[in-house]
Amino acid sequence: MGLTGKLVAAIEFKAGGDVFHELFRHKPHHVSKASPKVHGCDLHEGEFGHAGSIISWTYTHDGKQKIAKQLIQTINEEKKLIEFKMLEGDLMEEYKDFLITLHVETKDNIDLVTWTLEYETLNEDVDHPISLLAYFIEVTKDIETHHAGN
User: Fold this and answer.
1) Is 64 exposed, middle or buried (0-12, 13-18, 19+ CB in 10 A)?
2) pTM score, whole prediction
3) Distance CA 22, CA 33 (A)
4) Relative orientation angle of helices 17-26 and 130-148, to the nearest 10 degrees
5) How far apart are CA 113 and CA 81, in angstroms?
6) Burial level of 107, CB count in 10 A (0-12/13-18/19+)?
7) CA–CA separation, 108 vs 124, rounded Å?
8) What Rg do the C-alpha atoms of the chain give, in angstroms?
9) Tens digit of each residue's pLDDT (9 = 90 or more) over 19-62
10) CB neighbourhood size of 108 (10 A)
């Protein structure tokens, strides 16, 4: 039996939270223009920006090229929240379930991008995805630099 876990990171985003949310909701295929760690995002079913759509990412993590096929499970425009449920790809070699939630909120005029990883490992020998959470922080900073020109 595997272990369940939840990792959360909230990062200040100086280029505007709406910019970040809109990028991942309507133009995830443009993320690769802002971060060299992401190579592309393809639409398999549905439409970008719509729950129920299926997309796949190609990216480099821990020095290796990887693939992630995901269902856009939930989009909550009011909360600027998107949930990506993993269907196939490299992560599913070690995890039974994997849900990535992206949430943008503003507190005291500061935009925060929050990444939440909820998962169940296939067995107790699988590491918690701490390096993946660090990867999402790096991609967030790449996007901030791209949009804000820092």
Assistant:
1) exposed
2) 0.95
3) 15
4) 110
5) 10
6) exposed
7) 41
8) 15
9) 999 999 999 999 999 999 999 999 999 999 999 999 999 999 99
10) 4
